[in-house]
Structure formats: C-alpha cells, structure tokens
Amino acid sequence: MRPTSLVKMSTLIAAILATVIVLPQFTGLHTGVLRAQQYSITPYNTIYMFIIESPPITSFSAYNPNIFHGGIATYGLYYDFLASLNITANTMVPDLADWWNMTVLPNGTLEVLVHLRHTGWSDGYPVNCSDVYATNLLLGLVDDMAGNVTIINATTCAFMVPKGFYLPLTSPGNIIDDLFGTLTWGGVAVVWAYHIWEPLVEAATANYTYVYLYNFGPPSVASAAEQKISGLINELFTWKPPSAASDGPFYLCDITPEYFLLCKNPYYFAASQIPAQYVVMWQYSSMAQVYAALASGKISYWQTSGTSISPTLLSQIVSNPYVKMYIYPGFGGDALYFNFLNPWLRIPQVRQAIYYAVNWTELAQAAYGPLILPSPMPQVGLNPVYYEQWLVNTSKYWASLGPQWAYVNYTYNPSEAASLLESVGFTKKNGQWYTPNGTPFTLTIYISSSAPAPQLALATSIANALTSFGIPTTVITYPSAEFKTIIQKGQYDLFFSYYSDSYSPYIPSFFPESGYFSGPTATYNITHWDNVITFPNGTSVSLAQVCYQAVTPPRLFQCIADTMWGINRDPWFIQLDWSVSVVFVNTKYINWPVNDSSIWINLEQHETPGWYALLTHMSFKTPVTTTVTPTTTTVTTTTTVVSSVTSTITITTTSTTPVTTTVTSTVTSTVPPTTIVSTVTVAKPVISTALIAGIVVIVVVVAAVAALIALRRR
Q1: Long-range contacts of residues 18-25, Cβ cutoff 8 Å, at least 24 apart
Q2: Nearest to 214 by CA among 521, 485, 607
Q3: How many C-alpha atoms does 593 have within 13 Å on its Cβ side?
C-alpha cells in the first residue's frame, strides 16, 4: 500500500472513531495553551513565587521570550548550564554536560572536549551540540564567545579556545577560571535552541569570520568587525522566535493575567528527582504586593538581599508563624555610579570629594538596620571572602611604590572634601559650590521606580547629605523597563544600582571592570567610563587590556592590583554597603533544606548549581485530612474529631513511547564542521488495550453491517 493511501486510511479511521466514542486527548507540548484550572495545582506539588510585571502579560501572544521575565532569581528554572560553578567548594559541577576534558594542543589552542548527557528541551527535542554551537555563536554577537565550537557528533563537541585567551593549566584556580568561562560562558546557560533560532544562527554562521574577529581579534580589527555584524547584533535583541523552549527543570506552559505557570520539563535529565510539578509565578505590579503576599503565606519562597527589606517590613513578614528567615553571606550590595559624561565628574578629585562629603555607613545602616554589613574601608571591590587576603598583598605592593600610591580610607571628612574641590578650581559661595567656570554645581541621582523602599530612602538621604554639603542634589525615579534606554542616553550624574562583588579574584572576567563597565561602547555601561585609570606618576592603563589577557600569574596579579587601586583611588563607583542574602520560606507545605547553607549561597548567583540542589533536596509535606463525626444522644451532644493522615499520590500521565529517529543533515558553512548528526526523540501516543478492544469491536460492527448490506443486495 502506498504511503498516501495509508495516510488517507488513517485519517478516515480517526474520523469514524471520533464520531462513535470519546477518545483521550493526546496533545504535544506547546500545541495549544491550556488554562491553568485544567492543571492539578495544589500547595503539595507547587512552589509559589512572583514576578513584577506592570501591566501584566495576559497571553503568549504578548510574551517575548527574548526578555527574561523574573530576573536572575528565576533564571535557573528555565535554563541550565553545561556546568556550574559551586562558589563554596570552588569546583565545577556537571549539569547538561556529564563530563569534559581539557587539553592544550601543540599549536597552543585549548581544547575543552564536552560530552552532553541525555536531556531535552521542553518541546521534546534533545539538547545536542547544535544547541551548544548556536548559543556560543549568538553569544558572540554580544562579545561573550568562548571559542570556536567544533561539532563531533550529536552529544560530543569541543570548544577551541585560542592561545592567549585562557590561563595556563598550572593551578586549580586557573583551571576553574577556564572551565567557568568556557562551560558557562561567564554565567550564561544554553538558552538558544538551534531548531528554534536556526534563521538567526545561519545568518550569523554566514558572517562567522566577523563574529570570531569581534571576539578574538585585536581592538582595531574587533571594532571593524563589530560594524559588519551590527545588524545581526540588533536582530538578536529584537527578533521574536516562533516558539520558546526550555532545557531547565521547568518551562512556561500557561499565562494568565494573574500568574505565569511553569510546568516540569519531562525531558529534563533530573525530572524524576524533582518533587515539584509546578511553579506559580504571581504577576505583581509592586513590591508592596510581594510583602503582603509573603506575610499572608501566598509566596512559598523568596531570596533577596538585605538591602531590600526595611525593619518595619521585616517584622510584618515574619509575623506569619510558617515563614522562616535565614541569613547568609551575600555577594554584593548597593552602589552609586559616577557618569563620566559629566565633565566635572571625570575629574578624580571631584569624585574623591563626593566620597568624603557623605557618611555612607551611617546612612546605609539607618535605611536597612541589621540586614547589611558596613561598607569596607578601604574600598577595593572584593567580597568578604577574599577581602583581607588580597588587601594585605596589594597594599604591600602599592606601598612599595611610594606613599602617594597607598590606598585611601574615605571616612566622613567634609573638610577634606572641600579641600579637594578647591584644589581643582571649585569655589563655595553662600553655602553653594560652583564649578571653575562659575556655574552652580548640582547633581541628579537616578534610581528605578521599582526599587525597594529602603533603597529609595537611602538615595533620598544621600541627596539630602550632598545638598547640605553645598551640592544641590535631586533624586529622579525612572521606569524600570527603560533601564537600557536611560543608560544609553546617559543624562544622569549619579546612578543608584546594584553592585556585584567579584566572585573570586581568580576569575578576572567577573571583576568590576568587565560586564556592565566594559568601556564606552558597552550596551549597559552605567558609567560611560573608558576603562582607563591614571596613576600618580601620570601614566594611564586600560583595565580591559590588562585583565583581558591576564594569562600568567604575574599578569593576573597586576590585573587584580590595578583594578583594586582604580576602585579606590580613581573610582568610578562608590560601594554603599555589603549586603547579606536573606531567604524567606513558607514551611506550611514544604520541607526546605534550611541547614545546608551552600545551597542558598550558591543560589545567590544564577550561574551556580543552586536551583538543582534546592529542587532536589526539598520535599512536600503529607496532606492532612480531618474527618468530623457527630454523635447525638437524648442528653448531650458529643463531637468526636478523628484526625487521620492520608498519604495520597495522584499521578496523571499520558502514556507515551519514545521513538528514536536518527537524522543526518548537512549544514553548508565553513565553521564549525558541516555535518551535524542529531538523534531526535519523538513521543508518540500509545493506544491502551481497552481502546484497541473498542476499535476492534467497532470495526467488527462496521464489517458486519457492510456484510449484511452486501447480502441484501444479492
């Protein structure tokens, strides 16, 4: 029988059966959006969280997967990494990749061979090396490419990192840095599925040479290459793919005006180890709603910095007897960034004067109470774990060059602030400071309108302190959705935002000179700073150049020392506080791994294995059913309450059989290898025995009727 005939017959049989009996609905993932009330959501299988969306997103048609909704706090729910950095253990942990191997080839190239475990996207496609290639290539459009990706087969691929872009494999710290930068692309998961993003991936592949040079070429060549692919860079942030898929533990399966619903990804390699079936992300328009929901028990988990909670709100939240609070070391805090587009703020003495003019510690403690640590002095940009060690080492180095090179403690000193301003031509008249050209010296502080109340209060207190010193300062709030636009316009003087300490001095890619502060062309460069610091002897150095190629221990030390000195003596920001990480959990329905601090510390940063550890170590409590039995007599009425614990496990499944199909396709490009072999697992419905019996019965009946008609026609 010809295939066409088979298709027609299958269609006909399906149509006939549909008119006779009601069949179960077999729907693949994302073939249609089911309403939330059709899911079996209970407090005993669901984690309740939140996102801030105003106005709320009402449907998939209004949802843009290019915009990460929920921020870092939920990143690991949707996507997973090849491997993750465990901060507390300083090791790389397997995730999507189950093993890897690092080898320096004879030509000096670092080969990182990676093998993927059996895991899949939420739409049923396997995660394979095509996705690794796609993610690496598209990250190349934002200057975060790990190297050239060579596809060996569907599950084996190799990162080829050019000589000079990795550290010598001579110490555990250097190995961790290279693995971190390669396997997590500096903290980015495998987020671009080749089968969804194929048009843009192929367009980037056609311009692979320019993408590669943009990432690994000398500065002048990289700049020219960037111009060649500017259209692709813009398309990466504007193109809306036809569908979305997740390779993490959950995927977005429904959207209502009230919440996002995340369903467990059945193709995730650790799906069977995760007890939660759903995550409900309430759509709130303000943090005030969050605090109320947390206190009322509507939210089961929230991790935030201590700077987000005022003492008043804290007492309100913990008033719920089921809400437990745990405090762990944080990795950042608040910062006030100088905008170098302001010509007066480009002068180091002016920035130093602002440092001295305000009692930063006093203001921060007044805003936050006990949930912060005082800002360290001297400020050098390290987190508490490494602060003392590296402060000692670098202090000795700078002191050996002379007293003018030593670190400075910016304790509150208005007189010193005044002297510094006067040294560069500023004058003070009637309590008001004037610039050297005679104009009043005024400042603006920009802060997001969605910032928590303590941060807004701190920004206002800073403005009042500067105004009292003689520099009239105004606080301006902006819509959080306009962050990128505000940054690019640069029409502020000071910018209030979060500051992330470096995770480790052995990972220079995460030092503050990179990322948001990577130079004047950076998309999110808050400071509009050019990465250049000037030393007391008049020489200047580009931190980007010093740190980007810090491939030997002496150069790595120089990168760290120069950065620490610049943060202190030639500052582009003021670190206002050291935050702590605060975890709130509702224990009414869920047992949380509260005693394992490493889970919460690692969860503080999305590139760590925190979500996997949390989801696999939590458990739901057993539902309690209470039965009331009344007993009545002629004299009294006695009510006996019988409490029984009923353990009920309800599993709703669609029986499927995985069918493995090997598909070989040839991709025409020069880089990477052109042949991609992928194994695609397709889930097909299995018809139950009862259903088959029903079909047989119907077929027999139809055959009998046909036979009867035929006999009558004789």
Answers
A1: 20/698, 21/694, 21/698, 23/691, 24/654
A2: 521
A3: 17
Rounded to whole angstroms, the Cα distance separating 67 from 56 reads 14
Q: Inform me whether the pLDDT recorded for 521 exceeds 60.
A: no
> In this prediction, what percent of the chain has a pLDDT beyond 90?
45
Give domain status of residue 523, yes or no: yes
Q: Which two tokens stand for residue 250?
A: 């959950």
Residue with tokens 């939210």: 299
Task: Quickly list DSSP for 571-597.
Answer: -SEEE-EEEEEEEEEETTTEE--TT-H
Confidence of residue 66 (pLDDT cuts 50, 70, 90): low
CATH number at residue 472: 3.10.105.10
The answer to whether residue 327 sits within a structural domain is: no
CA distances to 77, 238, 239, 257, 261 from 60, in Å: 18, 17, 15, 11, 12
Q: How confident is the model at residue 193 (pLDDT cuts 50, 70, 90)?
A: very high
Question: Count of domains in the chain?
Answer: 1
Q: Give the pairing type, strands 494-500 and 443-448.
A: parallel
pLDDT, tens only, 378-420: 988 877 767 888 899 899 999 999 999 999 999 999 999 999 9
Q: Where are the beta strands (DSSP E) in 379-488?
A: 427-429, 432-434, 443-448, 473-478
* Whole-model pTM over 0.70: no
